[in-house]
Structure formats: C-alpha cells, structure tokens
Design brief:
The protein is of the alpha+beta class and about 70 residues long. A two-stranded antiparallel ribbon has the order 1-2. Strands 3-4 form a two-stranded antiparallel sheet. A hairpin with a 2-residue loop joins strand 1 and strand 2. Helix 1 crosses helix 2. The chain starts with a helix and ends with a strand. About 5% of the residues have low confidence.
Length: about 70
C-alpha cells in the first residue's frame, strides 16, 4: 500500500495507506470527472508498482466501475 501511495502522490493524488489497503479521501462534493481522475491515477500507480496492464472502464454517471484486464 505504501509504495503505491508514494507513486500516486508523485502524480498529485493523495491516498491513505493502511497496511495493504488504500483509502480514497475525496472531498464531500466531487464531480464525475474528478472521480475518474482519482481512479485512473490509482490504477496507473498500481500498474507501475506491479508491472501490470489493467485499466478502469467508465460507462457514465452511476455505473459501477469495471476492471478490464488488457494483458
């Protein structure tokens, strides 16, 4: 968790690492564009740390996040 936190922090995203768990800390008022940024940077940090190629798939407001394995 901590290593991924450090990678995300270099991209300007503040996550909260607790052991192997990362918590998002969004503001109370946030729009869809900012949520997509938060998730995209988190996936980028995870991919960089693990050397994987997974990405989020967004289907518009209200849809649940799906993970697409591109490897």
């Amino acid at each position: 968790g901590y290593q991924i936190y450090k990678i995300a922090l270099m991209e300007g995203l503040l996550l909260r690492p607790l052991g192997n768990v990362l918590y998002f800390m969004p503001p109370y008022i946030i729009d869809e564009k900012d949520i997509e940024y938060l998730v995209t940077v988190t996936f980028k940090a995870i991919n960089e740390y693990f050397g994987t190629a997974i990405s989020p798939a967004f289907n518009g407001c209200g849809d649940r996040l799906r993970v697409i394995n591109q490897s």
